[in-house]
Design goal:
By secondary structure, the chain is mainly β. It folds into three domains: about 25-155, Immunoglobulin-like (Sandwich), CATH 2.60.40; about 160-235 and about 385-415, Immunoglobulin-like (Sandwich), CATH 2.60.40; about 245-365, no CATH class. About 10% of the residues lie in helices and about 45% in strands. The protein is globular, with a radius of gyration of 23 Å.
């Protein structure tokens, strides 16, 4: 009897774990020897891998071991909420999976040796058959996952109109933004059971960790679906990102205080301060992204851009109790880990952090983490006037299909936020 009791409980716990694991497949962090992961559409500098069905995109990354290892890629398909799909591989892929990345080069004339890998998708061996949510997994020769990244393939089967408003809630009027939008089917078409078959996600500045999901239409205006929410589609405005420019790694440039040469270059940035509580000031940024660039050699950033230890510093008169401070940006996929954690130096009254980064233009900001929450705007502040990029994703499960098609996208900005 007792044995059966424990068996039943283990089965229930295992089932619950399976459900929780399947609901949100987190992107796997890369190890420290994998750097400068760039995954994007070939026609834009914005690093968000989203393409129209049939178009191409590419993945770049560096292996600092520099020994030309073999890496392999696998592709998986997911439902709108990133739960595993029931589709077989041949229902979403044409060709082969689990193939070696054959395009790689060794670095040239750099202090830090590395091997640069490039994967173009789709290619002669792998093509995509349907739109929706995908996950790209990179494995090494030992069949161990090195890192993974989400990507999206869409079809233009609907139109979306969107604008960004200041929230109507006076408590958040100065700090938050609300996204309002409508969805129209193509002329002559209609949505069947939109309350259950249409699923919408809103992503701010290409960051999955703060996305809003599963918004339902408030009402229909003919065949048009209206989403005029205030609270349900509300985001913190945040603040403009800080930046630095290290294209010329041997000299000082924008927000670089001075440079030293040891085994590698040491790049010391101008100290920053706690911006929370200060008035909003517009600064043009790239919303947390980075662009690899170099002024060396033939200016081929893929293999001629060098690496340097970048020293960050944040002025703070006292240690922030019960908070850990991190350097935050696309350079490490917006993760909070030991690599970008800062430590307090009481003698100088600053937080200090060092990150190994490739030459280029980088956006970053500082975020705080408590045992319960990630406080993305506790250090830099939040303003309703901040320029943010919003992406609206519209998923629809057609009658008879076993998957969620990504039938429409819309990009909008809060540059001209509406009162």
């Amino acid at each position: 009897m007792l044995k059966n009791y424990w068996v039943k409980h283990f089965v229930i716990l295992g089932y619950c774990f399976q459900i929780l694991w399947g609901q949100n497949p987190q992107e796997t962090d890369q190890p420290q020897f994998i750097k400068s992961i760039v995954f994007k559409n070939q026609s834009t500098e914005i690093q968000f891998p989203m393409v129209k069905l049939g178009e191409s995109f590419h993945l770049h990354f560096d292996d600092l071991n520099g020994d030309e290892r073999n890496y392999y890629y696998r592709i998986k398909y997911f439902n709108h909420d990133w739960t595993p799909s029931n589709l077989f591989q041949n229902e979403y892929l044409k060709g082969f999976n689990n193939l070696r990345i054959e395009n790689y080069q060794t670095s040239f004339n750099t202090l830090q040796p590395y091997t640069h890998y490039q994967l173009d998708l789709p290619n002669n061996q792998t093509q995509f058959l349907i739109s929706g949510n995908y996950l790209l997994e990179i494995f090494d020769e030992s069949d161990e996952m090195v890192f993974s990244r989400r990507f999206l393939i869409y079809e233009n089967l609907s139109t979306v109109e969107a604008s960004v408003f200041r929230t109507r809630d006076l408590e958040f009027y100065q700090t938050h933004q609300s996204v309002q939008f409508s969805i129209n089917p193509l002329k002559g078409a209609y949505f069947r059971d939109p309350q259950n078959q249409i699923h919408v996600s809103i992503i701010q500045n290409d960051q999955w960790n703060t996305a809003l999901n599963n918004l339902k239409p408030q009402y229909n205006n003919g065949s048009r679906l209206e989403y005029r929410y205030d609270t349900e589609s509300r985001f913190e405005g945040g603040n403009e990102y800080l930046f630095f420019d290290s294209k010329g790694i041997q000299i000082t440039s924008a927000n670089v205080s001075y440079v030293e040469l040891n085994r590698l270059y040491e790049t010391y940035l101008t100290p920053n301060f706690l911006r929370r509580g200060y008035p909003y000031s517009f600064t043009q940024d790239i919303n947390g992204d980075f662009i690899v660039r170099t002024l060396q050699g033939s200016e081929n950033g893929d293999i001629e851009a060098d690496y340097s230890w970048v020293h960050f510093s944040l002025s703070a008169p006292v240690l922030l109790e019960d908070q850990e401070i991190y350097i935050y940006g696309k350079f490490n996929n917006y993760q909070l880990n030991e690599e970008n954690k800062m430590y307090y130096n009481p003698s100088l009254e600053i937080y200090e952090g060092v990150v190994l980064l490739k030459q280029g233009i980088y956006n970053y900001k500082y975020v705080a983490k408590t045992p319960e929450y990630n406080l993305y705007n506790a250090i830099c502040g939040s303003h309703a006037l901040t320029e943010n990029r919003y992406l609206i994703l519209v998923y629809y499960r057609f009658f008879g299909n076993q998957y969620d098609s990504l039938i429409g996208i819309e990009e909008t900005s809060s540059f001209e936020v509406i009162d």
